[in-house]
Amino acid sequence: MLYSIVVPVYNSEHTLEDLYTRLKHVFDEELKRPFELLLVDDSSRDRSFEIMKSLREKDHRVKIFQMAKNFGQHPALLCGFQYVNGDFVITMDDDLQHPPEEIPKLIHVMDERDDVDVILARYENRKHNLIRRIGTWISVSMTTKMLNKDPDLEITSFRLMRRFIVDAIRDTSIHLPQIGNLLVMTSNRIINVDVHHDARAYGHSGYSFRKLFSELMYDITTHSALPLVIVRNIGIFTFLVSIILGIVYLIRYLTGGITVPGWTSIILVLLASTGLTLLSIGILGEYMLHVLNESKKMPNYVLRQKDID
Predict the structure, then answer these.
(1) What is the mean pLDDT of residues 173-192?
(2) pTM for the full model?
């Protein structure tokens, strides 16, 4: 079984050699299993790519890629997914907060569980800063409701996946995809395994509160139709209420309950126009909902395994 390890790289000149050395020791000495390491440079501003080239010269199991510009972590992962050869795919960060020595925990569980497609590392002692933890908590809460995800399942970037899952994600055509969300949309055979989480060895996290908020809003508007559903329901409700109030005010006017000249006609016009406007928005929301679902281009099904002649 070949294991493909995909690592997005950004300004990691201080950690890449250590990451490679520790991964090599884990697979060659401890697990004694073949592996390939795919390093995807997301347009780093330091010497990261030079170090990647030196690792490639030293060990041809290391495959290197350089993005033309800084596209972000998830597009970098998708780039790596295009070139993996392994039966299993591991994703991890480049900053050594995901200890390579924890990989055997994920692999041993996968070996024992034929019913599991994806294993997500769950950090026993999360070392992220306060802003990152708050942003992660908000994001997890929102995505749990949007994707009907098990609230106890933690989505992290330290993962072990079966190859067919990676192929399904790779073939999905979504602008700015979020790998964790696509995993939940692809399979429900996902579990957590507790692992150790190290403090960042160098530098600081590139995830500011602004970036986390931006990603959350993108998740909501891309993977969820909740805002459209809310607008649609408000439009339908307001239209029905406007009809009822219009009937009530018209009856009161005819029975002499309203004596102010012109008041009834103004109210009826306002209620009718407002109700029709919001109903129209609701109808447009319904069409946008279908457009959103079609634009995701998610596969109609994902075949987990087959046994045919």
Answers:
(1) 84
(2) 0.72
